[in-house]
Amino acid sequence: MHVTPTIARIWRGRTRPEHADIYEAYNYEIGIRPLIAKSLGVRTFREDRPDETWFVTMSWWADMESMAAFTGSDPTAVHHLPRDGEFLIELPERIEVLHLRHSYGTSG
Asked: Distance (Å, rounded) from C-alpha 30 to C-alpha 75?
């Protein structure tokens, strides 16, 4: 059965360039792999700048209830990974939860 996503959850964080590759691998193992198993889809993005590297993770969910079943009690709260404090320039204070209104085209 195909389930259509109605929710996008977006997390953003940034590291120093010298930590970027290590953090990307760590984030995948500890943060992204569990998302892949439970969400409808995950996309990760990286932007390397001279003084910092930005990471963005977008995951898609059927509804708030399915997202809450994965994240715990509050799906809109930031859930930091155990070593985020070592790698991130600052711990993100919020995530974005967006309601999907329309979808145009296809993306792989």
From this structure: 18
Q: How far apart are CA 61 and CA 79, in angstroms?
A: 17
How many H-runs (helices) and E-runs (strands) does the chain carry?
4, 4
* Model confidence, pTM: 0.90
Q: From residue 34, how far is each of 44, 49, 70, 89 by CA, in Å?
A: 14, 28, 9, 24
* Phi, psi for 74 (deg, rounded to 5): -120, 105
- Give tens-digit pLDDT for 34-83: 999 999 999 999 999 999 999 999 999 999 998 888 887 788 888 899 99
**Architecture label for domain 7-78+90-99:** 2-Layer Sandwich (3.30)
Q: % helix / strand / coil in the chain, to the nearest 5?
A: 30, 30, 40
